[in-house]
Structure formats: structure tokens, C-alpha cells
Amino acid sequence: MKKGKLYLKHNTLSEDIPLVLAMRAMGMTSDKEIAELIAGKDPFYLELLLPTLEEGAASNTFTQRAALDYIGPKVKGMGRRVGAARRPPYEEALDALANIIICHVPVNGSDFRAKCVYMAMMARRVLDAVSNDNKTDDLDYLGNKRLELAGQLIALLFEDLFKRFNSDLKLNVDKVLKKPNLAREFDAYNQLLCHGDLITQGLMRAISTGNWSLKRFKMDRAGVTHILSRLSYISALGMMTRISSQFEKTRKVSGPRALQPSQWGMLCPADTPEGELCGLVKNLALMTHITTNDEEEPIKRVAYALG
């Protein structure tokens, strides 16, 4: 929020986009529908939302295609390889909104309504926080945190390497087929052999060095993998249940290091290193169970039943 106006900010965008234009690009072109989705019938929230709606009207962008054309030139194209042709601006914007921005909310075909509802809920939470400090979230509450597991990190790395492999293969095939006189018949199998070890070498390099460098997601981390210590059963168990925070260890802030009541029964209150990493590196309790990949349909039915 800047000067009372709501904006969409994301790493794949070169500048902040007015929220109204982002929702218009996803098919919600009516100001009345946007206002009802965010503020409902409450005049207090409608008054807070008014500067945002006025900015959207001042941009003279009233259709989905016009909003996509506005956002398209501001998409950085993080997933595009060097030398690849740039698509039309509206296609770049549509792909970014569907697959990169708020990517955990699925898009069914060209139906962005679920993503619009989620974005409206985020905007409502921002308006709540601006109007009332008591409605802000506690950053250290364990329920607001998610653990990034080994499988998720390897999946991100594989996705980045696989897309790089496809892009390199496509560029090489285009170079070969563009030659006017081919000395011999084109063989795609040889092209696959030339780039076949790209994924394997990338995975081995990341796991052996511990450096997770993903250009597509602008992710650059060091020390992700460690050699497992097997001096004793307790030392091995401690390393396998270790949780490292992304908080900077040089900052002298007590909030992320302090014990939280929400950690009771989930994290060990005693097992943490001394020094600057105290409280930032924690361990799971022995009986902690991490849920992964739950079925969505039963949860959806319960959510709909509860209104």
C-alpha cells in the first residue's frame, strides 16, 4: 500500500501494478464487482478502497485485454532463456498471472475467479491492518509458518533444470533446422545425447556443494545440504530434525529467537546452538508429524459446509 492505494508487487514484475488493473487483467472488469469482493457493503472499507478504484479509473484501462497489454511490458520474463523470442505483451502477462503470481491457487482454463477471490482477501487483510493494529498477524506464530522440505527443494531444482534443458534443446534444434543445406538427415536423438546430462549434473552439483541456485525463481542459497553426522543415534536424529530459519543471524532481534507458546509440542525448547544462531536453528520434537500433500476435496467440502 502506497499513499492509501493498493498495489500488486511481485519479483517477476519490474514495478508495482495497481491492484484494480491486476484484477481486471484476470477478467474482473467491473469496479462494482471488485469493490464488493474486497469491501462488501461496509462503507468504512469502501472509503479506504476509494483511492485504489480512482487510480484504476484514471488509467483509462477498462478491459481485460487493455490491462494485459499494460502489465505485459513490465513482466521480466524470468523463465525465458537467452535468445528465445519474446511473446506478445498480453501473452506474457497472462502466463505470469496464471503460472507465476500466486501460483498455489489453481487456474481452471481461463477462469481466474479463485485467484481474484484470494487477492481480494489479501487486500481486505491489508485494509484491516491499516485501520486496526490489533488485526496484524504475529510473524512468529508457528501456524503462519511452513517448512520447506527436501522433496520440495529438489522438485524446484528439477523444474528449473528441466525447463532449461527444454529451452536449450529447442534453441539447438532451431539452429540446425535453419541451415539451408543439411549435410545429413536431422537426428533428434543425437541432440538429446548432447544435453542429456544437464539435469543429472545440475542435481549432483547442488547436492554435493549445498548451493541451491535457481535463476527462474531468483533463489540463491548456500549450505542447504550437509554431511550427516553418525557419531551417535542422537546426533544423527538431531541433524535430520533440524530446522534452519531464513532470518539473518547478524541482526540483534529477540522476536524470532524467543520461545512461542504455539511451538509447544512441535519444537524442542532446549535443543538449539549457542551464539548468534541461538533460537534461529531449532529441532522438531520427537513426536512431531509433518503433513504433506493432503487431499483437497474433503477439505473443500468441510470449508463449503462451514460457509
UniProtKB/TrEMBL annotation:
Main EC class the enzyme belongs to: transferase
Name the record gives this protein: DNA-directed RNA polymerase
SUPFAM superfamilies in alphabetical order: beta and beta-prime subunits of DNA dependent RNA-polymerase
GO cellular component, one term: DNA-directed RNA polymerase complex
Any GO BP annotation: DNA-templated transcription
A UniProt-annotated Pfam family: RNA_pol_Rpb2_3
Residue stretches making up the RNA polymerase Rpb2 domain: 3-148, 227-290
Presence of the UniProt keyword Metal-binding in the record: no
Keywords (A to Z) from UniProt: DNA-directed RNA polymerase, Nucleotidyltransferase, Transcription, Transferase
Highest taxon listed in the record's lineage: Eukaryota
Keyword match Transferase: yes
Record-listed E.C. numbers: 2.7.7.6
Family per record: Belongs to the RNA polymerase beta chain family.
InterPro entries according to UniProt: DNA-dir_RNA_pol_su2, RNA_pol_Rpb2_2, RNA_pol_Rpb2_3
GO molecular function terms attached to this record: DNA binding; DNA-directed RNA polymerase activity; ribonucleoside binding
